[in-house]
Amino acid sequence: MATLVLTLIGDDRAGLVNAVAEVVARHGGNWERSQMAELAGKFAGIVLVTVPDDSVDTLVAALEPLHGMLDIMAQPGAVELDVIAPGARRFALDLVGTDRPGIVREITDVLAAHAVNIDTLRTETRDAPMSGGRLFEAAAMLEVPASTDIGALRVALEKLANELMVDITLDTGV
């Protein structure tokens, strides 16, 4: 079996995921994993599919007519599911606080300085109850290398939380 990573992007509308799923299924493919989102009228997704080796070219060609509805990039290659570096640990990071420009850059600066990989990141802003301002919320799944000093990472995140006046939690129970 061959593995393909499909990257999808286009204007959001009903039936986009189904159109791709039908092509994958018609070529004997299996939809292994995906992450998809709609934001501001745009749809984006990434899909990991496996397909019989002799169906790769025909599957990729069969996706071509979907262009115009979706831009699809198919990348064949050896992909392992749920790969985590030896000795690495998974953590969940949650942040809530008053929104301001640059907050994502400042958080990712700290994570990058500690060689932390962001597996997933979800952010949003919303009206803050009672204060009339905007709240920023972030939830991330992190892969922290075995060589990273967790204590130093926590100290750096706590320092940043104080500077930004936000609440940051780092959960090791993932």
What's the number of helices?
4
Low-confidence stretches: none
Spatial shape: flat
Binned strand content: 35-45%
Order of helices and strands: EHEEHEEHEEHE
CATH architecture level-2 label of the largest domain: 2-Layer Sandwich
* Rg computed from alpha carbons, rounded to a whole number of angstroms: 20 Å
Give the termini distance in whole angstroms: 31 Å
Residue-averaged pLDDT, rounded?
Answer: 92
CATH superfamily of the largest domain: ACT domain
Layout of helices and strands, plus pairs?
Elements: E1 2-11, H1 16-26, E2 30-39, E3 42-51, H2 56-63, E4 71-76, E5 89-98, H3 103-113, E6 117-127, E7 134-144, H4 150-164, E8 166-171
How is this structure best described in words?
With 174 residues, this protein is α+β, with helices and mostly antiparallel strands. It has two domains: 2-76, ACT domain (Alpha-Beta Plaits, 2-Layer Sandwich), CATH 3.30.70.260; 89-171, 2-Layer Sandwich (Alpha-Beta Plaits). Helices cover 26% and strands 43% of the residues. The chain has helices at 16-26, 56-63, 103-113, 150-164, and strands spanning 2-11, 30-39, 42-51, 71-76, 89-98, 117-127, 134-144, 166-171. A hairpin with a 2-residue loop joins strand 2 (30-39) and strand 3 (42-51). The longest helix is centred in the last third of the chain and has 15 residues, at 150-164. 16% of the residues are buried. The mean pLDDT is 92.
